[in-house]
Amino acid sequence: MPPLFPRLALLVAIATAIALPAAAQTFDVWPSTPPASEHATQVEVVSPFPGGRFDVVRNITRPTLEVFRPAPGTATGAAVVIAPGGGFRYLTIQAEGRDVAQALAARGVTAFVLKYRTLETPSDDRAHWRDFFLFMAQASRSNGAFNLDEASALGVADGLQALKIVRERAADWDLNPAQVGMIGFSAGARVTAGALLDPDSAARPAFAGLIYGASFNDAPLPANLPPVFLAVAGDDKLAAPTVLSFYQAAVRNGASPELHIYASGGHGFGMNRQGKSSDFWINDLLNWLDVQKLAKP
Fold this sequence. Notes:
Helices cover 33% and strands 17% of the residues. With 297 residues, it is α/β, with parallel strands linked by helices. The longest helix is centred in the middle third of the chain and has 20 residues, at 149-168. 39% of the residues are buried. Mean pLDDT is 88; it is low at 1-6 and 8-22.
């Protein structure tokens, strides 16, 4: 056989390995049954969002982290735990999780998609979505002034545990444990804010991104707040008031958060393309991380 063919086979194998990213590693956040979930009976399910545009995960009782690593030789040593949103009823795991993780990994940041615990919802999809949209209508009428502290408690606990695990195992992924941050979307931003405001300063993320969501109430912000990136659409009545309130409180507290308000985009734009300036929020985040010397330019 001419030597061309083995060389061609080798080139095909190399090209295939480059084109197909390595399978993401997934592991449990808690070593055993998570606290406060010992008697949970709901069964995790994947449900299509109405209209079939994407799937969501709900009735989560077993939190996990899915790891997305940069290409060899490109890692900065920084890491981000990503908390998707979904009103604590489900998680938009793709557009607010895996797609974000891939964008971060492409810039040298190791990303961990957190599948945190959610409230129990009806097993029937139609009943679940009926209840969810009723909840969203009530939340929208409140103009962002509604309290989800109780609903978020399990998610915040999972977020803090995720940060702890990533720091403890930093050597496994060639990470700097002092550069482990967190980014959250909507309800996930509330989870992130809960971790950011934890009384134990050592447990907090080293930096944070709050995307169309922020803290729950007017509790005083801690001194020496770490770097914070905020993004929201101006026409988002659900989240814009709380994001602006957080920004103003942080400035009054002597911090210098970065705030991006896009003219339109609504709530939950994530990595979806809508032909609006909010489509490019991820570029603003990556540029901010670059300035913080956490991502590659």
